[in-house]
Amino acid sequence: MKIDTSAQLIPYDGNRPQVAGGVYLAAGVVLVGSVYVAEGASIWFNAVLRADYEPIHIGKNTNIQDGTVVHIDHGFPTVVGDDVTVGHAAVIHGAVVGDGSLIGMNSTLLTGSRVGAGCLVAAGAVIREHAEFGDRALIAGVPAKQIGTVSDEMFERMAQNTSSYVSLGAEYLAMLGADGP
Ligand SMILES: CC(C)(COP(=O)(O)OP(=O)(O)OC[C@H]1O[C@@H](n2cnc3c(N)ncnc32)[C@H](O)[C@@H]1OP(=O)(O)O)[C@@H](O)C(=O)NCCC(=O)NCCS
Questions:
Q1: Nearest atom of ligand 1 to the alpha carbon of 107
Q2: Rounded distance between C-alpha atoms, residue 167 and residue 148, angstroms
């Protein structure tokens, strides 16, 4: 059986998504317009990154997990830093995420919000429009609030998780186009 391993890269208004070397794009991924994905990043099954009227930047070694939606808003590009993990089914909308942060599964970052470096956004959190959190904030709830700080131990676990996704992405990249079972 032949497996469809294609991602779709769709130009918008003359801007074509740019993907650096060593990036894994899983089947069902859709990138639209002014999206840039830096080296070592991985975008997992059915994630959609739509940069129609503002750009989206995905940093080095960052993973965007399955079913996540990344969009922008007028005047609000989305920037996800280096070494970030974005869990399954998150929504990042015109928001900025600092290096080394973890964005929990099914969390939502609304327009104009900013999360610092090394932060942990708990699963299911909803970060309000224009809310800002500094570095190493532990953020949770609806609406999201800072409930603590990210300890060195927590940060180390987050870094290990991100790095395991770099290896996983490389493994899947090596299998692209291979025949299935
Ligand atoms: C927030 C989080 C880090 C807490 O994990 P933990 O340190 O093991 O904490 P616990 O489960 O012992 O819970 C500690 C407290 O936080 C609360 N809490 C835990 N997860 C929460 C969440 N997602 N939202 C709101 N509160 C949460 C608990 O209710 C508990 O509150 P209490 O002290 O008032 O009883 C974790 O629950 C989480 O959301 N991790 C994100 C995982 C993820 O999405 N990864 C991406 C895919 S790889």
A1: 44
A2: 30
